[in-house]
Amino acid sequence: MSEELYEPLPDVDAYLRRIGITQVKEPSLEFLDELIVAHQSHVPFDNLDICERSLVPSLGVGDLFDKIVTRRRGGYCFELNGLFCSLLKALGFSARPCMARVLLRPVPHPLISHRANIVAINGKRYYADVGFGGPQPAFAPLIEDGAMRAEGGQTFTMHRAGHSWWELGYRGTKEEERIVLRICAMAVGEEDFVPLSFFQAANPQSVFKQNRMVNVKTANGALNLRNNT
């Protein structure tokens, strides 16, 4: 029933070529950062299958590999971060999935609607995300209270938000910090995202059903499409 969620990658080298990585390195924070920015720059975040074709995406590794690597498509968080987690494991990283609430819009009780990854390196935990439409860090923020890092005019700060919960704050060059994600560090399995993804892809009230969204990183920022803008 859920075996396809844990299958090994069909072709690690093909995946690395898809994201423009030419040299495999030992697992490290530096290599993780390189993989994240490469993925964000080559594989677009998009909800086109959901919004345009009313499809519920498969989260099976083989299906994701076919879509993202073989057919050179994009996807949304449950797809992109799911396949990325498989790549990290294949490269020797200690990676696991995590859930998050998106706090970009002022709603009283935001649902868990985002999937990313937590990677352990030298006894520290890092947040690795290649499937958020933005703003998203083009590196792996340290999961530690007050940990701050700035890249390309964007500053991200991690804040403790209670037991197992963390908040990722974002600040651009001309704005105050705002919290964009509330991240749960509790261990979960790949199967836990199947109903979450189904809800976001099938519910008529889902933002992914109502709005066309595409985003890909560039050297100077990002290209972003929302509906027809």
Notes on the structure:
This protein is an alpha+beta fold and about 230 residues long. The chain has a single domain (about 5-130, about 140-225), classed as Arylamine N-acetyltransferase fold (2-Layer Sandwich). The protein has seven helices and ten strands. It has a seven-stranded antiparallel beta sheet with strand order 4-3-2-8-7-6-5. Strands 1-9-10 form a three-stranded antiparallel beta sheet. A hairpin with a 6-residue loop joins strand 7 and strand 8 (about 180-185). The longest helix has 14 residues, at about 30-40.
Entry summary:
A hairpin with a 2-residue loop joins strand 9 and strand 10 (221-226). It is built from seven helices and ten strands.
Report strand order across the widest sheet.
Answer: 4-3-2-8-7-6-5
Global geometry: globular
- How many E-type strands? 10
- Tell me the strand percentage band: 25-35%
How many DSSP helices? 7
Name the CATH architecture.
2-Layer Sandwich
Distance between the termini: 40 Å
SSE order: HHEHHHEEEEEEEHHEE
Please, how many domains?
1
CATH class type: Alpha Beta
Query: What average pLDDT do the residues reach?
Result: 95
Largest sheet: 7 strands, antiparallel
Query: What is the helix content?
Result: 25-40%
Radius of gyration: 16 Å
Q: What's the CATH topology name?
A: Arylamine N-acetyltransferase fold
**Which structural class do the helices and strands define?**
alpha+beta
Low-confidence stretches: none
